[in-house]
């Protein structure tokens, strides 16, 4: 008995351990890889363009759904004329959707790449019209287009213009970037027209064969039997992964399918044939409960998660799900570009289809005898379409419950993943930053909605800055402790309003949000170099340090502008240094490393700014070619902690390994200065020495430095009076 008891317990323990190992493997490998692939997709600029354009038609889809609902209500109440008017209105919304998406691809591309929105929209629409004419000689307007064509023409036209612009900058030195935009627009349009003509003349036969092939292929998805019906389910749900509505993509199939279903029901009423199992209403009843993907079950799962931040989403998505409109839920949870949630989103309607098809085939529930609008609430729709069958309503409830069982583990896993991923630990300070969504717009991965609105807000703030004053330059000296001399100056941008009030660079967040940091950096670089040449040429052997954002590093104009500003030589012994802001995340590390190497070949020093305050700190030291490392003020503040000094010493040793100069920022007291010296740091910057100063003050400091030795933290009286 004891042996059998021990054997049984051992077997149960092995099984439990095996289940735990399998569950852990699934969680740490499959879901981890899926989430990593999601991050890569979200960082892809083409995916960004597609998602931005599909989100642009979300309001259009919602309004269309409400119009259809109004049409159904009018028809039910006997107002047939009003019902027909509403139905024709929704057809107009449907035809307008591809054009809206095409335009918004251009708007998104322009905002992201700091280009003219007018040129991008004109190019996108022109490309669309050319493509439309290739497919149909009789096409006079471009409302009769498909979504794939609208997206493809928008992306192809703008990508081609980007390539043309880059090559034009290489071929000729343009003085005005606007000339590049104008010329590249017409050159791109000419290239598209020429290649389209070649395709039309040379490959017309092949094009017709290709179109015939796709038409034949589409027949496979036409739901005439059980297997083709499965393909139809996949056709309606899988495209949502890319933010594309399957109905919009393959509208021709649905139109023919609806017409065939109406004819079949009429024949059955006339006694000329049997009812088919499959019809559009069949899919709306069993595979689109709450919208594509049977997302009514997802709504219930979210309600079951008490701590889920997505519950806020239900204030909008919940009521709409009752009318089978689920775009807010699909984009808000999200389903779009989410490799984890797309699994239950496809699996739930697929399982429901199999169960409902079997129940109908074996006559457990009656076949559909009436065409009911897709926007009719689920139980009512099932009741009306099935001839008032209570068995069909019971099956509907059971399938919703089955969908909840399928969605639940994925929703729970997603919530758990969000709680762990949002932790952002600083590798040097050990501080953990937790970002929790506070409202519907801040739900994780729904940030592309806020992002588009934030661009508009940023542009408004920028316009306000530009009309209420001017930008000016300040300089903050950097001091060498061995001889207490200024060896470099860092240039800083400030805003001075019409009343003379000077604002620190808090406004830069608007430029960063709007993608305009390169314009700021280029302006600072050009004006600072001009000021040094005109006013500081008497002092030799100095370094001018200019802040460069990660946005600017990957801007294709950077090397061209650097060569332009360095065409005129610097004062004797002066060198130019770029400070790369480490507190901002680098999106294209390979490209950044290549650009840094090219800048160093031009004689420009590279300094890593704010070391220890931002992203991937240790990774920066080994990946990028650096000449100087600027320790963030957090290192100085850490000296007040028990192990702060030891920590600073270790950081200095770590920086010495990569053979870079070390400068520490934010030194404000004599005590901090003594500890910094003891840690082996030679270069300093901070309020103890000098605050950011106007250019004329720095010029006098440099002039006095040539005459006398300055003490740390003290300025000459006449200099203090000027400040």
> How far is it from the N-terminal to the C-terminal residue, by CA?
93 Å
* Helical stretch tally: 30
Question: How is the CATH topology of the largest domain named?
Answer: TIM Barrel
Q: Which regions are unreliable across 5 or more consecutive residues at pLDDT < 50? A: 1-8, 14-28, 419-453, 712-723
Helical content band:
55-70%
| Sequence of strands across the biggest β-sheet | 3-4-6-7-8-9-10-11
Mean of residue pLDDT?
Answer: 77
Q: For the record, what CATH class of the largest domain applies?
A: Alpha Beta
Q: What is the H level of CATH, i.e. the homologous superfamily of the largest domain?
A: EAL domain
| Rg, nearest Å | 32 Å
Overall spatial form? elongated
CATH architecture of the largest domain: Alpha-Beta Barrel
The domain tally reads 3
Name the structural class. Answer: alpha/beta
Q: Name the beta content range.
A: 5-15%
């Amino acid at each position: 008995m004891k042996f059998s008891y021990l054997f049984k317990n051992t077997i149960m323990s092995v099984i439990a351990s095996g289940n735990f190992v399998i569950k852990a493997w699934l969680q740490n490998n499959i879901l981890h890889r899926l989430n990593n692939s999601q991050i890569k997709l979200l960082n892809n600029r083409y995916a960004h363009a597609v998602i931005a354009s599909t989100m642009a038609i979300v309001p259009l889809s919602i309004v269309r759904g409400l119009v259809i609902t109004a049409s159904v209500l009018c028809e039910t109440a006997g107002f047939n004329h009003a019902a027909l008017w509403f139905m024709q209105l929704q057809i107009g919304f449907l035809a307008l959707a591809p054009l809206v998406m095409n335009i918004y691809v251009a708007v998104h591309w322009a905002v992201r790449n700091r280009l003219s929105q007018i040129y991008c929209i004109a190019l996108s629409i022109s490309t669309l019209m050319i493509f439309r004419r290739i497919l149909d000689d009789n096409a006079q307007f471009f409302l009769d287009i498909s979504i794939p064509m609208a997206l493809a023409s928008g992306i192809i036209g703008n990508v081609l213009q980007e390539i043309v612009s880059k090559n034009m900058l290489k071929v000729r030195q343009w003085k005005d970037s606007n000339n590049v935009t104008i010329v590249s627009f017409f050159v791109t349009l000419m290239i598209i027209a020429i290649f389209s003509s070649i395709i039309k003349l040379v490959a017309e036969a092949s094009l017709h064969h290709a179109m015939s092939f796709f038409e034949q292929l589409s027949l496979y998805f036409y739901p005439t039997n059980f297997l083709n019906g499965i393909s139809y389910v996949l056709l309606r749900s899988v495209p949502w992964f890319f933010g594309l509505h399957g109905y919009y993509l393959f509208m021709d199939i649905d139109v023919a399918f609806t017409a065939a279903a109406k004819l079949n029901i009429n024949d059955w009423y006339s006694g000329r044939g049997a009812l088919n199992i499959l019809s559009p209403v069949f899919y709306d009843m069993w595979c689109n409960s709450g919208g594509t993907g049977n997302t009514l079950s997802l709504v219930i799962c979210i309600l079951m998660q008490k701590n889920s931040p997505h519950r806020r989403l239900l204030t909008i998505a919940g009521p709409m799900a009752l009318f089978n409109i689920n775009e807010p839920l699909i984009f808000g949870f999200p389903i779009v570009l989410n490799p984890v949630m797309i699994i239950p989103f496809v699996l739930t309607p697929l399982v429901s289809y199999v169960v409902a098809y079997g129940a109908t085939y074996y006559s457990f529930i009656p076949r559909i005898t009436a065409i009911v609008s897709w926007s009719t609430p689920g139980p009512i729709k099932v009741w009306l379409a099935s001839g008032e069958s209570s068995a069909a309503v019971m099956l509907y409830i059971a399938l919703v419950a089955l969908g909840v069982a399928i969605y639940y583990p994925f929703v729970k896993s997603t919530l758990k993943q969000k709680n762990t991923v949002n932790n952002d630990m600083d590798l040097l300070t050990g501080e953990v930053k937790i970002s929790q969504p506070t409202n519907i717009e801040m739900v994780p991965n729904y940030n592309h909605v806020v992002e588009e609105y934030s661009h508009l807000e940023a542009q408004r703030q920028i316009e306000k800055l530009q009309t209420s004053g001017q930008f000016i330059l300040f300089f903050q000296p950097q001091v060498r402790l061995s001889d207490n001399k200024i060896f470099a100056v860092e240039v800083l941008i400030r805003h001075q309003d019409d009343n003379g009030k000077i604002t620190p660079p808090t406004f830069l967040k608007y430029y960063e949000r709007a993608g305009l940091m390169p314009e700021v950096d280029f302006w600072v670089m050009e004006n600072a170099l001009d000021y040094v040449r005109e006013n500081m040429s008497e002092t030799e052997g100095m370094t001018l340090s200019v802040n460069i954002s990660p946005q600017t590093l990957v801007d294709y104009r950077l090397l061209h502008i650097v060569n332009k500003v360095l065409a005129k030589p610097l004062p004797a012994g002066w060198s130019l240094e770029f400070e790369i802001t480490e507190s901002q995340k680098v999106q294209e590390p390979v490209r950044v490393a290549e650009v840094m190497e090219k800048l160093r070949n031009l004689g420009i020093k590279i300094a890593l700014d704010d070391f220890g305050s931002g992203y991937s700190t240790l990774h920066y030291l080994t990946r990028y070619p650096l000449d100087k490392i600027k320790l963030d003020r957090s290192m100085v503040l850490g000296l007040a902690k028990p192990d702060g000094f030891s920590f600073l010493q270790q950081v200095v040793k770590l920086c010495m390994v990569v053979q870079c100069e070390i400068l520490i920022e934010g030194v404000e007291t004599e005590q901090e200065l003594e500890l910094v010296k003891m840690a082996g740091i030679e270069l300093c910057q901070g309020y103890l020495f000098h605050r950011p100063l106007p250019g004329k003050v720095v010029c006098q400091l440099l002039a006095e430095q040539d005459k006398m030795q300055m003490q740390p933290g003290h300025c000459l009286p006449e200099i203090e009076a000027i400040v």
